[in-house]
Amino acid sequence: MRSIQENGELKIESKIEEIVEPLREKIRDLEKSFTQKYPPVKFLSEKDRKRILVSLYTLLVFVMLRNFLFSLRENSHIIKFTLLKDTIQ
Fold first, then answer.
1. How many whole angstroms separate alpha carbon 19 and alpha carbon 25?
2. Where exactly are the transmembrane stretches of this chain (predicted)?
């Protein structure tokens, strides 16, 4: 004969299975509904790829130029002091 504790554990396990089984079915259904992992990709011609590459390089150059100009603006007091010092001497 099974003990009372074993019967209680079996009841708990069966209740858990009753709750979990519909969730497993929903997961299986969702996995089946996603047939494609990624959307289809449109392959570009070489000309279009070069155009995109040039645009990215242009963007990079402008960002670097902007950063350089901002750094000049932040350090402008140092540049002004150096120029003033040179003119006084």
1. 11
2. 52-72
